[in-house]
Design the sequence.
């Protein structure tokens, strides 16, 4: 579903649906948004399996790269605190991602709105 937040077209991926983890899942997600005008894809963390957050699987990096390669920004929406507590490497990914423009981890839509208002 497309939504415009702070003049930024955002595609809000439903919380229910098949899990997302692979590069092909990223391509399928991009395909679902084709022609919508969205520049930001917001995906609830519930759509990702536990193994996605395990840095050893490299799923997260491949998924992020595919989304960014196609010119989208990606926002993971929801609580990832348990994953941060369990993995220093994941904590570093979250911190570095949130410093940039391409991938953000936000706890709720209010935090997304704050970030979009500040950076667009």
Sequence:
């Amino acid at each position: 579903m497309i939504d415009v937040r702070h003049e930024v077209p955002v595609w809000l991926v439903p919380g229910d649906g098949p899990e997302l983890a692979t590069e092909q899942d990223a391509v399928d997600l991009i395909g679902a948004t084709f022609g919508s005008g969205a520049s930001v894809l917001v995906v609830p963390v519930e759509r990702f399996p536990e193994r996605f957050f395990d840095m050893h699987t490299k799923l997260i990096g491949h998924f992020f790269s595919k989304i960014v390669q196609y010119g989208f920004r990606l926002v993971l929406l929801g609580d990832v605190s348990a994953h941060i507590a369990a993995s220093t490497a994941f904590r570093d990914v979250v911190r570095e991602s949130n410093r940039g423009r391409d991938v953000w981890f936000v706890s709720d839509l209010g935090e997304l709105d704050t970030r979009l208002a500040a950076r667009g």
Notes: The domain at 2-104 is CATH 3.30.750 (Transcription Regulator spoIIAA).
